[in-house]
Amino acid sequence: MALSPPSMKISFTEFMNLCEVYDKDVMGSSQIRKSGEGGRLYPSRKKTAPEKRRVKAIGGGKTAPAKDYKPRKDIGTQGAGRGTSSQREQQPTQTKGVKLSAKEQQRKAYLERKKRESSTKDEVSGKDKSIDLKKSADKLLAVKKKKEVNPNYKPAKASGLTRQERMTLHRKGETKLRNIMKDQEMSRYKKETGQDPDKKAKTKILGRVHKRMST
Question: Buried-most residue among 108, 115, 127, 208 (CB within 10 A)?
Answer without folding.
Answer: 208
